[in-house]
Design goal:
8-stranded mixed beta sheet; OB fold (Dihydrolipoamide Acetyltransferase, E2P); single-stranded DNA binding; about 30% strand; globular; 16 strands; RADX protein; mainly beta; RADX
């Protein structure tokens, strides 16, 4: 009875000085962002976005500075949070938006919840899943898993989730964030099969804020990638150059990390697990490859085009 909903918060926030507690479920999680600059003296210039929802809709929540190292790894997709003494601000217009998996859910895009170590000092409590009551009306996390056969019909920049058995993983490569800059993105290529096609998923996986997962992608692991974007080279043969790349809200999971994740209830995930039980491990092992240079998309056949 002492809570406020996200819908009520949006309509009344300007007339309030203090806000009643919020009870929300995390629907999406962005990578951790470092915004430090040499001339600015800040102890912990970190920021992370989350999309949180209750029965009234979904809103952005921002974790700032020293709260990031303290809470980032504990707050995951599906986590239920009780938030007290938070701030509310006009939303930042240029941030990336995850693709919502529930088209019925209302989105409150004008404001965002701001969690700071002071002004005011936010109190964050994680509610364990066993304690969550149905009458709270918190939405379930939804996914949009696609099979390899369905991928060929998806348009460029479409967002989807995939699961597959890793058959190839390349070495870690890097690319400049800006042409003349000294910062780099780390990424690696991977192939994963799901039994629905002779073709694998071709995945360009950037190092997000999950180094312990990124560094341990190996052949024969069950790989889940969420919020992936379809990339098509429309100028060449589209079916030959389709691949998936990570977005700002992508999460990756490998064998050993799946337990308790919300996607384990998904029908397509269950179908994939059934398929893997029909496969011979030794047979699949013979087809796997690790490391090496992987030029993709392939360069043109003649040098003039290149």
């Amino acid at each position: 009875s002492k809570l406020i909903s996200l819908g009520q918060l949006e309509t009344t926030w300007r007339s309030r000085v203090r806000f009643r507690p919020l009870l929300v479920r995390v629907m999406h999680k962005s990578r951790l962002r470092y915004y430090g600059k040499p001339e600015k003296k800040m102890d912990m210039p970190y920021q992370a976005y989350f999309e949180v929802a209750d029965g009234s809709g979904m809103m952005s929540m921002v974790l700032w500075n020293s709260l990031c190292p303290e809470w980032y790894n504990s707050i995951n997709v599906g986590t239920v949070l009780l938030l007290e003494q938070y701030a509310v601000k006009d939303s930042y217009p240029f941030k990336t938006q995850p693709t919502p998996r529930d088209s019925q859910m209302k989105r409150f895009a004008t404001i965002e919840i701001s969690l700071n170590v002071r002004d005011p000092p936010t109190k964050i409590s994680i509610i364990s899943e066993e304690m969550v009551k149905p009458e709270w009306g918190l939405p379930e996390v939804k996914y949009h898993f696609v099979t390899r056969t369905e991928l060929d019909g998806l348009p460029n920049n479409h967002s989807c989730d995939v699961i597959g058995l890793v058959t190839f993983v390349g070495r870690v490569e890097r690319t400049r964030k800006k042409e003349d800059g000294e910062d780099f993105w780390l990424y690696r290529w991977a192939h994963a099969i799901d039994g629905t096609s002779d073709q694998p998923f071709i995945l360009e996986i950037f190092a997000t804020s999950q180094p312990d997962v990124f560094e341990h992608i190996h052949p024969m692991t069950y790989l889940v990638c969420t919020q992936m974007r379809v990339v098509r080279d429309l100028s060449e043969n589209p079916s030959h150059t389709i691949y998936l790349t990570t977005s700002n809200e992508s999460q990756i999971f490998i064998t050993g990390w799946h337990k308790g994740q919300p996607y384990t209830k998904d029908t397509k995930v269950k179908n994939f697990i059934q398929w893997t039980r029909t496969q011979s491990e030794a047979n699949q092992m013979r087809k796997t490859v690790i490391g090496g240079y992987y030029p993709f998309p392939r360069p043109p056949n003649n040098f003039l085009k290149y």
